[in-house]
Amino acid sequence: MKKILFIGAGSMAEALIQGWIKQKVFSPQEIYVTNRSDKERLHFLQETYGIHCMFDQAIFRQADLIILAMKPKDAIAAMRELKPKITAQSAILSILAGIGIGTITELLGSRPVARVMPNTSATIGMSASGIAFNNEVSTAQRILFLQLLEAVGSVIEVEEDQLHAVTALSGSGPAYIYYLMEAFERVGTEVGLSKDTVRLLMTQTLAGTAEMLKQSVDEPDVLRKKVTSPGGTTEAGIQALEQYQFNEAIEACIKEAEARSRSLANG
Ligand SMILES: NC(=O)C1=CN([C@@H]2O[C@H](COP(=O)(O)OP(=O)(O)OC[C@H]3O[C@@H](n4cnc5c(N)ncnc54)[C@H](O)[C@@H]3O)[C@@H](O)[C@H]2O)C=CC1
Ligand SMILES: O=C(O)[C@@H]1CCC=N1
């Protein structure tokens, strides 16, 4: 039986735990989770998923895989605390935004490290993840890491430096879409629909356009123009988006998030 140890028990850790249990990648008995001090949170996770939150410190030395899932701002101190507790054999899967593999091996010693940027859609097995490996990761471990992320969504291998852009786009991406949905629901009710009606219409519209983008040979601009009747409603809506600098807003959103990821790397 494997031993998977989460250091950090927040929303992303829970998304992976829930996804991996649901997809039967790991049994609850194989998952151990700890955090800094929030025992109530740990008990919630134990009660909800049947994982271990109270366990012998020996688990740190027996862990086959350690998942770094604390906040970047807490990561350096957390890894300093962790180093004496673990052996050189444990592989690391880090989901820490911004924190480089070099920093991890500096603090935890040379060992196989996979750096992953998933997103919270891992909860329902639909994460979009980017992954990068250091040279210590064997071919077998690389296959295992990719299988772990494929079990909770799509995964693509990138250069480590590209993970800053991955974080800005798909790591943070769900929040941008939720923010968009909040606006649709706010304005949709102002123009006479119930919140539930807007939720149904717009979740289906988002799902449908996502599937169109996956299945169609057309580029997004071609698909957009197929919706935009000259002088019609869509044209009026797009003109309003241009008037309020939609493209500039999206550019700033992604570039600011990418820059923040790089700043997290510098502590
Ligand atoms: N929330 C998201 O959508 C995503 C988050 N991430 C990354 O996942 C990591 C966790 O993010 P969230 O779950 O959102 O944060 P969170 O704030 O919900 O959870 C952070 C966890 O780390 C624990 N922690 C802090 N210091 C610790 C220490 N010294 N030892 C052990 N545990 C410690 C906290 O107790 C808490 O359980 C971050 O590095 C973030 O960049 C990556 C992809 C998506
Ligand atoms: O907001 C954050 O920093 C984390 C990383 C990507 C999504 N959430």
TrEMBL record:
Residues in Pyrroline-5-carboxylate reductase catalytic N-terminal domain copies: 3-98
Domain of life of the organism encoding this protein: Bacteria
Membrane spanning residue stretches: none
A GO molecular-function descriptor: pyrroline-5-carboxylate reductase activity
This protein's GO CC annotations: cytoplasm
PROSITE patterns linked: P5CR (PS00521)
Main location: cytoplasm
InterPro entries: 6-PGluconate_DH-like_C_sf, NAD(P)-bd_dom_sf, P5C_Rdtase_cat_N, P5CR-like_CS, P5CR_dimer, Pyrroline-COOH_reductase
One protein family per Pfam: F420_oxidored
Pathway named in the protein's UniProt entry: Amino-acid biosynthesis; L-proline biosynthesis; L-proline from L-glutamate 5-semialdehyde: step 1/1
Residue span, Pyrroline-5-carboxylate reductase dimerisation domain: 160-264
Catalytic activity from the UniProt record: L-proline + NAD(+) = (S)-1-pyrroline-5-carboxylate + NADH + 2 H(+); L-proline + NADP(+) = (S)-1-pyrroline-5-carboxylate + NADPH + 2 H(+)
EC number in record: 1.5.1.2
Record flagged with keyword Glycoprotein: no
Cellular location(s): Cytoplasm
Residues that hold NADP(+) according to the record: 7-12, 69-72
UniProt cross-references to SUPFAM superfamilies, sorted A to Z: 6-phosphogluconate dehydrogenase C-terminal domain-like (SSF48179), NAD(P)-binding Rossmann-fold domains (SSF51735)
Family under the similarity heading: Belongs to the pyrroline-5-carboxylate reductase family.
PANTHER family the record matches: PYRROLINE-5-CARBOXYLATE REDUCTASE (PTHR11645), PYRROLINE-5-CARBOXYLATE REDUCTASE 1 (PTHR11645:SF49)
Entry protein name: Pyrroline-5-carboxylate reductase
Lineage: Bacteria, Bacillati, Bacillota, Bacilli, Bacillales
Gene that encodes it: proC
